[in-house]
């Protein structure tokens, strides 16, 4: 089993993605899922650049973002590999004890499957993200993390988003931009819980469904600056 990723994922007009960019232990299709995420990350950036709506600098973030996600994925995949095929007597004793205890004790089940391989990887530290300005967040996806889905009406929130940036506004949106689809949401129920929302909370979601910024009470200028940063406009 190999755990590798390339140092550079772009050389001029050539891009690496999927197994050409990273190799992971063959468990739970993490390599395949990462390949889809690579393509999704690159596609919306290429689309904006080719349409003349964003500078070429936007594409440079592809490597840094997806390498960060690959590092996280490889770490968790390697931990699963070590659990399945222990390399040392102590590792085997831990594995066997966790499996035996898990039959009766819930705490031991989390030692077998921590859930890290069933959630999207993060892209922390991306130059496209706007760091939190508010300090009272108790939950919700931070910039660099994937958005969370939840039922809304007779469908799902993720199905309301298109191929452009989306503004999730728990209350009236702070502005209207042609580059952004605004979705007004109620600040109660499951969505409110998952986004740690209150009236006035706003999330800026990228086309690949990752959070670019979030605020408690943003101004139109706040959102505009975050959008500019998210597409490397002015970089």
Q: Helices, strands, pairings?
A:
Blueprint: E1 4-5, E2 10-11, E3 14-15, E4 22-23, H1 30-50, H2 57-84, H3 89-102, H4 106-112, E5 151-152, E6 155-156, E7 165-170, E8 180-185, H5 189-194, E9 202-205, E10 211-215, H6 220-230
Parallel strand pairs: 7-8
Antiparallel strand pairs: 1-4, 2-3, 5-6, 7-9, 9-10
Helix pairs in contact: 1-2, 3-4
Describe the protein in words.
The protein is α+β, with helices and mostly antiparallel strands and 235 residues long. The chain is 37% helix and 14% strand. A hairpin with a 5-residue loop joins strand 9 and strand 10. Helix 1 packs antiparallel against helix 2 (57-84). The longest helix is centred in the first third of the chain and has 28 residues, at 57-84. The model has no long low-confidence stretch (mean pLDDT 88).
Strand content: 5-15%
Terminal residue distance: 40 Å
* Strand line-up in the sheet with most strands: 8-7-9-10
Number of helices: 6
How is the biggest beta sheet arranged? 4 strands, mixed
Mean of all residue-level pLDDT scores: 88
Shape: globular
The low-confidence runs, each spanning 5 or more residues with pLDDT under 50, are none
Q: What is Rg?
A: 20 Å
Helical residue percent band: 25-40%
Q: Structural class of the secondary elements?
A: alpha+beta
Features:
globular, 235 residues, alpha+beta, 6 helices, four-stranded mixed sheet, two-stranded antiparallel ribbon, single chain, 37% helix
């Amino acid at each position: 089993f190999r755990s590798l990723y390339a140092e550079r994922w772009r050389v001029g007009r050539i891009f690496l993605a999927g197994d050409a960019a990273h190799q992971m232990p063959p468990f739970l299709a993490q390599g395949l899922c990462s390949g889809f995420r690579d393509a999704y990350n690159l596609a919306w950036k290429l689309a904006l650049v080719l349409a003349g709506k964003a500078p070429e600098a936007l594409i440079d973030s592809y490597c840094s973002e997806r390498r960060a996600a690959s590092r996280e994925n490889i770490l968790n995949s390697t931990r699963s590999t070590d659990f399945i095929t222990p390399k040392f007597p102590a590792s085997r004793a831990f594995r066997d004890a966790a499996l035996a205890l898990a039959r009766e004790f819930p705490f031991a089940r989390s030692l077998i499957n921590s859930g890290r391989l069933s959630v999207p990887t993060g892209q922390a530290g991306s130059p496209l993200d706007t760091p939190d300005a508010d300090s009272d967040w108790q939950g919700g996806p931070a910039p660099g993390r994937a958005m969370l889905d939840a039922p809304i009406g007779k469908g799902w929130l993720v199905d309301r988003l298109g191929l452009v940036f989306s503004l999730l506004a728990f209350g009236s949106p702070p502005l209207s931009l042609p580059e952004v689809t605004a979705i007004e949401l109620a600040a109660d129920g499951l969505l409110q819980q998952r986004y740690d929302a209150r009236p006035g909370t706003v999330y800026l979601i990228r086309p690949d469904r990752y959070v670019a910024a979030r605020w408690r009470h943003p101004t139109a200028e706040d959102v505009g600056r975050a959008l500019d940063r998210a597409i490397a406009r002015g970089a």
